[in-house]
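hey can u check if this looks right to u? its 116 residues, i copy pasted from the old doc so theres a chance i mangled smth
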Amino acid sequence: MAPGVGWGASWSVALAAALALGGPGCTRRAAREPALHHIVIDRFRYQPAVLVVASGDTVEWMNQDLVPHTASASSRSWDSQSIAPGASWRTVVHRRAVETYGCLFHPNMKARLVVR
């Protein structure tokens, strides 16, 4: 212990340093980097049909079909417009929701995006 520094002062400094570094009892989590998720459009289907992502993640739809498609949220919160064959479209999702989406050109195409 340094001259003139009491036990209580040393303890306070050590405790503050431990908490600042995420020591025992600290409830902070490491920051999570946003992820990139892919949905393939093929044979008039979205694959996967249900995708679970975190808020802040990016979702990319890749059209591998021979015709254009869209990825359009039922709530109208996002819409890709036409995605040409061989092209893709991305969006960053922020709102927590279970969102049904589909293709405006082919109403039988449906899938779900779950944002947590």
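The helical segments are 7-20.
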